[in-house]
């Protein structure tokens, strides 16, 4: 899902690019280790002969390098700081709560994880109200930094809902995010890069087994 952030940002800027895929759980002795020796994780953006790592940093880099094209980060310093704040919240707090829904053992643990994830979305609903200023996206009229940070996980949320039989983005609890999700997925920069839910569902089941095994 983190790779989608870079791909969407490149699409917004209309930057031609090539994609090199890395096999999941592959032996990381080759290109990936050379390009990202600290974390050994995707995505990595190679611009010229220089690698840039970590998805949110890549998005910021793309925005700065191709600055003459549609802006991704807000122009106002305060709005830019808030977008970065909530993006960090998504990665550090909210995503682990969604992951915990899949990994939790027992109904009580799953219920607690679900509640954490929903409360996080309620906070993001409030952030959307302030950031969007009545428009379609966190970034206003067009997709911006925070839209990319959260939107790349929409298909993952749908998969989580199917596997765990839960509901995350609810029209009654988070009506603005519910409508935002529809607009985000329909955007030209997004619709052709989102993974198919069924294929992602297959991967999610495999990933959950592998992750649980690594935690034992």
UniProtKB/TrEMBL annotation:
Q: Which Pfam families match?
A: GST_C, GST_N
Q: Which residues form a coiled coil?
A: none
One MF term in the entry's GO annotations = glutathione transferase activity
Carries keyword Transcription? no
Per the UniProt entry, what are the Gene Ontology biological process annotations, in alphabetical order? glutathione metabolic process; toxin catabolic process
Where the record annotates domain GST C-terminal, the positions are: 76-207
EC numbers: 2.5.1.18
Q: Alphabetically list the UniProt keywords.
A: Detoxification, Transferase
Reactions that this protein is recorded to catalyse: RX + glutathione = an S-substituted glutathione + a halide anion + H(+)
Q: What class of enzyme is it?
A: transferase
Q: Which CDD domains match?
A: GST_C_Tau (cd03185)
Annotated GO CC locations: cytoplasm
Is this entry keyworded NADP?
no
InterPro entries membership: Glutathione-S-Trfase_C-like (IPR010987), Glutathione-S-Trfase_C_sf (IPR036282), Glutathione_S-Trfase (IPR040079), Glutathione_S-Trfase_N (IPR004045), GST_C (IPR004046), GST_C_Tau (IPR045074), Omega/Tau-like (IPR045073), Thioredoxin-like_sf (IPR036249)
- Annotated GST N-terminal domain residues: 1-70
* Family (UniProt): Belongs to the GST superfamily. Tau family.
Protein name per UniProt: glutathione transferase
The scientific name of the source species is Buddleja alternifolia
């Amino acid at each position: 899902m983190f790779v989608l952030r870079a791909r969407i940002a490149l699409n917004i800027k209309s930057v031609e690019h090539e994609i090199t895929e890395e096999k999941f759980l592959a032996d990381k002795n080759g290109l990936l280790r050379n390009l990202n020796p600290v974390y050994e994780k995707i995505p990595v953006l190679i611009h010229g002969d220089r690698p840039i790592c970590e998805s949110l940093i890549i998005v910021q880099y793309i925005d700065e390098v191709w600055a003459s094209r549609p802006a991704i980060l807000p122009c106002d310093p305060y709005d830019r700081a808030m977008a970065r704040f909530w993006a960090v919240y998504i990665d550090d707090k909210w995503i682990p709560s969604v992951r915990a829904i899949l990994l939790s053992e027992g109904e009580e643990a799953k219920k607690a994880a679900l509640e954490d994830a929903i409360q996080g979305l309620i906070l993001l609903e409030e952030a959307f109200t302030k950031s969007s200023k009545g428009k379609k996206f966190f970034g206003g009229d067009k997709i911006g930094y925070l839209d990319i940070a959260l939107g790349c996980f929409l298909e993952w949320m749908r998969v989580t809902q199917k596997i765990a039989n839960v509901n995350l983005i609810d029209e009654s609890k988070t009506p603005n995010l519910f409508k935002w999700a529809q607009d985000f997925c329909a955007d030209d920069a997004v619709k052709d890069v989102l993974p198919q839910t069924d294929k992602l569902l297959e991967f999610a089941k495999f990933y959950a087994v592998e992750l649980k095994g690594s935690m034992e």
